[in-house]
Amino acid sequence: MTRRCFFVPEVASNTQVFELPPPLSRQLESVLRAKPGQSIELLDGQGSVWECLITGISRGRVSVSLIGKLNRPERESPLAITLGLAIARPDTMDLIVRQATEMGVLRLAVFRAARSQYGFSERSEKGERSGKTAEKKKDRWFKIASEAVCQCGRTRVPETQIFDDLTHFLTFVEDEKEAEGPHRPHTLKIFALEHESCSGLLSLRGQMGPDIRRVLAVLGPEGGWDKTESSALIEAGFTPVCLGPRILRVETAAVALVSSIQLQWGDVDQLGITN
Predict the structure, then answer these.
(1) Which of 50, 67, 73, 170 has its CA 20 to 30 A from that of 197?
(2) Which residues, 6 or more positions from 256, have their beta carbon under 8 angstroms from its beta carbon?
(3) Residue 76's closest CA among 50, 47, 96?
(4) CA 268 to CA 266: how far, in whole Å?
């Protein structure tokens, strides 16, 4: 097994040998068939990466010895991007979380829009609420984002927040703005809209300039925004932008939106980063 990266909430850096969390231990033992003497990387919740050596495996328990902290090239974007997203079908959401993480998004904010076909809980055939709550979805997305962080070389897992609807999300945005006060960095607020009269991000860069350090980008459901929602976004200071003349699936639109933002104000055009 080549050296692989795994996320853990924290690394016991004050001790030489420690046990890994049970889920990761089971994965290493039963799925990956790891053996003592193999080296792995652990990404902790504080943005550090550690090299460890597997010292023991027994009945779902894996112990490792700490070799040291690794110095990775900086792969966190200088641009703090929050991607607001109307919830989509589960497999689509999984894909968007993974791809947004790979593209450097710092935070995901998921809400139910007026035309969303999916919600944060499901019902059984009898109409009863199932156990698949919003928190379980959030846990799943965190796991997917953690795996994507290890794969793409980042060191921080994006935060995921869930809101009942667009109104609650916009209220949160306003409350956060007031809490940060007058020294808050200038924030670009945009939302994707299928409309021929919308500006593209290139023309928006000409208006806003290159010195943007924070972006709130919002993407609606596949059915599009209703008029009340688009009006609410504009009233909250969001600028509508278009993503080209073609109709995009929501997972494609998410990648197009974030990559365009990174190209205009982030680090996509930076060359010379080595693996």
Answers:
(1) 170
(2) 243, 244, 248
(3) 47
(4) 6
CB within 8 A of 162, min separation 6: which ones? Answer: 109, 110, 111, 120, 134, 137, 138
Contacts of 261 (CB under 8 A, 6+ apart): 79, 81, 201, 215, 217
d(CA 90, CA 134): 12
CA–CA separation, 267 and 275 (whole Å) = 16
178-237 pLDDT, tens digit per residue, is: 887 776 778 899 999 987 667 788 877 877 777 889 999 999 998 899 999 999 999 999
47: left (phi over 0), alpha (psi -120 to 50) or beta: left
d(CA 14, CA 127): 51
Query: Could you give the CA distance from residue 79 to residue 65 in angstroms, rounded to a whole number?
Result: 36
pTM of the complete model: 0.84
Using CA atoms, how far residue 257 sits from 3, 21, 105, 221, 261, in Å, is 33, 36, 11, 14, 6
Domains contained in the chain, CATH given? 5-70 (2.40.240.20), 80-265 (3.40.1280.10)
AA letter at 117:
Q
> To which residue do tokens 């979380």 refer?
97
